[in-house]
């Protein structure tokens, strides 16, 4: 095992976008960050393991590798996920189930395996990356909205089950974010989306990462079972 005095944070799906920004923020905050990736290359300057969140065997193998090389991760950020958007009448069972399996069941697999180490440490942070659409819904994203809504009930159940062991469980719920996917939107569509947000703009990945960094810190030790919006006011009241 590589000896390290820094606490270990594991971020799933951190090869780009929000996940990479979270990994960079946690590294800046003094964590030894281990990122997971599947098919895309791992980002430079981070320890990395291969993990497919749709496979319990892959999740277990990745955690075992991290534990043997670096130690038990005490901050877990479940960020990996997919989209398969489409109108409900045209959405196949496969498209619905694939998104649920990756986004919701995948987060469960990661958190369940992480709990083994956190219970021994008697401390830790489970941080789930949700979405504003988990509360307000989104046309064309029945599967994605359902997966992100499910994270809330799951995270709160973890919070009740593990709180007595010093383990917190929270959901960060971003709104529209500046990513590679939103960058290709036509200007008119971007303007329309921004106009629906009270703050009038998209969120940056770094703004989400900053909130994750706070929840991972000692300053947030008494916050658990919360859904923390980073959405510019888009989902207020939900």
From TrEMBL:
Checking Gene3D superfamilies in the record gives: NAD(P)-binding Rossmann-like Domain
Instruction: Give the Ketoreductase domain ranges.
Output: 7-180
Q: Which UniProt keywords apply?
A: Oxidoreductase
Q: Name one GO molecular function term.
A: oxidoreductase activity
Q: Which SUPFAM superfamilies match?
A: NAD(P)-binding Rossmann-fold domains (SSF51735)
* GO biological process assignments: monocarboxylic acid metabolic process
Looking up InterPro entries in the UniProt record yields:
KR_dom, NAD(P)-bd_dom_sf, Sc_DH/Rdtase_CS, SDR, SDR_fam
Q: Which NCBIfam families match?
A: PRK12826.1-2
Name the family the entry cites: Belongs to the short-chain dehydrogenases/reductases (SDR) family.
Query: What is the official name of this protein in its record?
Result: Unannotated protein
């Amino acid at each position: 095992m590589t000896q390290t005095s820094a606490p270990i944070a594991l971020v799933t799906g951190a090869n780009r976008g929000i996940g990479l920004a979270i990994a960079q923020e946690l590294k800046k905050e003094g964590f030894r960050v281990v990122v997971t990736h599947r098919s895309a290359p791992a980002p430079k300057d981070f320890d990395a393991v291969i993990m497919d969140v749709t496979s319990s065997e892959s999740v277990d193998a990745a955690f075992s590798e991290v534990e043997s090389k670096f130690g038990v991760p005490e901050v877990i950020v479940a960020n990996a996920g997919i989209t398969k958007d489409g109108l409900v009448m045209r959405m196949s069972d496969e498209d619905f189930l694939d998104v649920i399996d990756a986004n919701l069941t995948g987060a469960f697999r990661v958190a369940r395996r992480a709990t083994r180490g956190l219970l021994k440490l008697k401390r830790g942070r489970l941080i789930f990356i949700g979405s504003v659409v988990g509360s307000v819904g989104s046309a064309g994203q029945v599967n994605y909205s359902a997966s992100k809504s499910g994270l809330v009930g799951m995270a709160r159940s973890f919070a009740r089950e593990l709180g007595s062991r010093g383990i917190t469980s929270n959901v960060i719920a971003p709104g529209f974010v500046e990513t590679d996917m939103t960058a290709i939107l036509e200007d008119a569509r971007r303007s329309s989306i921004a106009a629906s947000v009270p703050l009038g703009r998209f969120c940056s990945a770094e703004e989400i990462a900053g909130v994750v960094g706070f929840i991972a810190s000692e300053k947030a030790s008494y916050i658990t079972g919360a859904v923390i919006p980073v959405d510019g006011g888009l989902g207020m009241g939900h």
